[in-house]
Automatic annotation (TrEMBL):
Pfam families xref list: BBE
InterPro entries per the UniProt record, alphabetical: BBE, FAD-bd_PCMH_sub2
A single MF term (Gene Ontology): flavin adenine dinucleotide binding
Gene3D superfamilies: 3.30.465.10, 3.40.462.20
Berberine/berberine-like domain: residues covered: 59-88
Name of this chain's protein: Berberine/berberine-like domain-containing protein
Amino acid sequence: WPHRHAKWDLELGASWTDTENSEEFVEWGRDYWDSILPYTAATFYTNEIMDENQDEITANYLSNHKRLLEVKNTYDPKNLFRLNANIRPEA
C-alpha cells in the first residue's frame, strides 16, 4: 500500500432521505472534500473508492500502478473483476 506514511485517514460520510435534493447534498459533500483536500496527501485508501475517475485511480496507486496494470492485463484482460478499486486493462 503506497500510503503507509499517512498519519490520518479521513472519510466523509453522509446520508439523507430527501431524494428530491440529492444533487445538492452530493455537491455539498464534494465541496466539503475539495475544501479539505489541500491539507491532505490528495490520495485515498482504495477500499473507500467511490466515483473517482480512472486518472485519479491511476495517480492514487503511485509507483505500484505499472506493476498492477501488468497483472491486470495478464490475468483479467476482459475486466471481469471490476467491482473494486478497478484498474482497467489496456485495450
